[in-house]
Write a structure and sequence with these properties.
Largest sheet: 7 strands, mixed
CATH superfamily of the largest domain: PurM-like C-terminal domain
Strand content: 15-25%
Oligomer: single chain
Shape: globular
Number of strands: 14
Strand order of the largest sheet: 9-11-8-12-10-13-14
CATH architecture of the largest domain: Alpha-Beta Complex
Length: about 350
């Protein structure tokens, strides 16, 4: 199960096996497979494919259909592209009720409306009753360049004259860039865990799953200066920051007192022995931005529903490699890439 849970085990599987056979540095892709970014760029089009096997298929705050659309849309959007068409493949388990299937379809329709995209083609299969958990959904999507992306890149180049990237990539960070987190962490993973185990934490913990593409386009268009973005899904904030650090070959120092965690989520993590930094999210983004635009970007984020709890949580540095956290008590703690997300089948 760890091979599909984000973190070091999954990354080793992808690098040592998948990239071994499909990676090709001579490819025409502008963002090739070896980059291991959230999506690829081919012929100026952003392309993403994502499979969703969350268990259970309905959980507090969402369901597998909303998750499938949001996950694909967000992975396209964090490269700076505007998603505009999706495909959808269903693998349905024998015994799934038509009522539940229609509930999933209605949820996908509503999420597509929120994101401003359409599902244009797909495939449906049914397999024998077993351990599928109801259904699995694959969604793929394409996205295109926007005027907002061009405006953003122009702002970056005003502050960084040697910036030559045409997209927002994990490897774009430079020393002194600020790191912004759009809101609280751990909500999605704990919501799914509560549904999996029938746990009640004495509160109303719900998934944060939502499409973020319209928010992202607004940030690019109205402020700019963004060089990298990622939605911290499997492996959580810890895994995403370590990806930034490895690909940009810089250290990242974050500040514990700036990382927002709901009190009920924090209490549940303490009770279960989980680190909220390693728990997956589905409605948050981590943003790397040139320091000159960081405060303006934060100010805009805080005016939105999705970013009302946003904070500048850290900055990049050349003083060390990897990710470290300045703790509330005054010391520093190394934030290693997790082995995998502690909650199985959260997406």
């Amino acid at each position: 199960m760890l091979h599909g849970a984000g973190g070091t085990v999954m990354h080793e599987l992808v690098k040592n096996y998948v990239v071994k056979y499909f990676g090709d540095s001579a490819t025409k892709a502008e963002v090739p497979l070896e980059a291991l970014d959230d999506a690829a760029v081919v012929g100026g089009i952003v392309l993403k494919s994502d499979s969703h096997a969350v268990k259970p298929i309905f959980f507090p705050g969402g369901d597998i259909g909303r998750l499938a659309v949001s996950g694909t849309v967000n992975d396209i959007a964090v490269l700076g592209a505007e998603p505009y068409a999706l495909t959808c493949g269903f693998v349905l388990e024998e015994g799934l009720t038509l009522k539940d299937f229609e509930r999933i379809l209605a949820s996908m329709q509503q999420t597509c409306r929120e994101a401003g995209v359409n599902i244009v083609t797909g495939d449906t299969k049914v397999v024998e009753k077993g351990n599928l958990g109801g259904c699995i959904i694959n969604t793929s999507g394409i996205g295109r360049r926007t005027i907002a992306l061009e405006k953003n890149l122009a702002i970056v180049r005003q502050h960084r004259h040697n910036f030559d990237s045409c997209w927002i990539l994990d490897s774009n960070l430079k020393e002194g860039d600020k790191i912004i987190l759009s809101g609280t962490i751990g909500d999605h993973g704990l919501a799914v865990l509560s549904a999996q185990e029938g746990l009640s934490f004495g509160s109303d913990i719900k998934s944060d799953v939502k499409p973020l593409n319209r928010l992202i386009q607004r940030l690019l268009n109205e402020v700019g200066g963004i060089v990298t973005m990622k939605d911290p899904t499997r492996g959580g904030l810890a895994d995403a920051l370590n990806e930034f650090s490895e690909k940009s070959r810089l250290g990242i120092l974050i500040h514990e007192n700036k990382i927002s965690v709901r009190e009920d989520v924090r209490a549940a993590c303490e009770m279960l022995g989980l680190d909220p930094l390693e728990v997956g999210n589905e409605g948050k983004i981590i943003i790397g931005v040139v320091k000159e635009e960081a405060e303006k970007l934060l100010e805009l984020l805080k005016t939105t529903q999705e970013g009302k709890d946003a904070e500048i949580i850290g900055e990049t540095t050349a003083d060390f490699k990897g990710v470290a956290m300045q703790t509330i008590v005054g010391g520093k703690r190394i934030i290693a890439r997790p082995v995998g997300d502690p909650v199985p089948r959260i997406c």
